[in-house]
Amino acid sequence: NFVFQFNVNLEKILETKRLSCKGSLETHAKERKELMAQTNR
To answer: pTM of this prediction?
Structure first.
């Protein structure tokens, strides 16, 4: 039971990391787009 609980927690941590990675990637892309827009102005 302890091992199962550990695996569940691990899954949650990995999912959270994956989501935050995805979020920062999207933020990064948006920032780069804004930078490009400023450069082209």
So the answer is: 0.48
